[in-house]
Specification:
Elements: H1 2-14, H2 20-30, H3 34-50, H4 52-60, H5 68-78, H6 83-96, H7 99-111, H8 118-121, H9 130-143, H10 161-174, H11 177-186, H12 192-208, H13 221-230, H14 238-248
Length: 249
């Protein structure tokens, strides 16, 4: 009898009853240090991804974790989770607009890479709290959705430097012609952090697509510097440029 009693908890722990105890064990494995426990980390994460319909409510309870390994595990797991399914469970957390939860909820939605979620996040750009606005901008950056950039233009002149800084970073991560135009305008920002962030991302976008230089004037020193760096680099034919322009726009 004692043996049965002693074994009972292990049945719950490792059996396929999929209760909270099992989820806890699975998440501990998924959050383990890769170097020492690689043999258990990936299998555990794969199992979580397979279980996503059932385990998502449990994972949502972990989004505010202060444990770096757990946070990193969630970053990687949510990248492979169906964004719309995750949104169903994170929507209540977003609507609370709670400072402690909103950033994590919006960020992890962004990690899914589901660009259709941009429309769910865009309304929060009009929130009164700069913290909520900045968190939303960063989440959009995680989505890498170039079509969402036009919604950031109105915030590029916001009085809060941190909002403008987030706009610059997200525009750079999202890419596209609208992002280039927005970054060019931010080169003249009175905050050095914003202007230099804009220069950094603009430089990166121009390395990928030098034809964007056609949309930059030489109004200030940073603009002249970046034009000079890429002058003479162009597409071979006009049709090649137009093809690119159509895609970028």
């Amino acid at each position: 009898m004692k043996a049965i009693i002693l074994l009972f908890p292990f049945f719950l722990l490792f059996g396929k009853s999929y209760n909270t105890t099992y989820y806890d064990t699975l998440f501990i494995k998924a959050s383990a240090a890769r170097f020492d426990h690689q043999y258990m980390v990936e299998p555990a994460r794969e199992e979580i991804i397979k279980l996503q319909d059932d385990i998502l409510p449990f994972l949502v309870t972990k989004i505010n974790t202060e444990q770096p390994r757990e946070y990193h595990a969630l970053r990687e797991i949510f990248r492979k989770i169906d964004g719309k399914k995750l949104y169903k469970f994170l929507e209540p957390e977003l609507k609370k607009c709670d400072r402690e939860t909103f950033y994590s909820a919006s960020y992890f939605l962004g990690r899914t890479g589901d660009k259709d979620l941009a429309e769910k996040l865009l309304p929060f750009l009009d929130h009164d709290s700069s913290y909520i606005v900045i968190s939303t901008i960063k989440a959009l950056g995680e989505l890498r959705d170039s079509t969402a950039v036009e919604n950031l233009v109105k915030l590029s002149t916001n009085e809060d430097m941190k909002v403008r800084w987030a706009v610059a970073a997200t525009s750079g991560l999202s890419g596209g012609l609208e992002a280039v135009k927005l970054l060019v305008s931010l080169l003249e920002d009175n905050s050095q952090l914003v202007s230099h962030t804009s220069f950094f991302f603009l430089d990166r976008l121009l390395k990928e697509n030098p034809a964007y230089t056609r949309f930059i004037d030489t109004g200030n020193e940073l603009k002249r510097t970046i034009i000079k760096k890429y002058e003479g680099i162009d597409f071979k034919t006009e049709s090649e440029f137009m093809k690119f322009y159509g895609v970028a726009k």
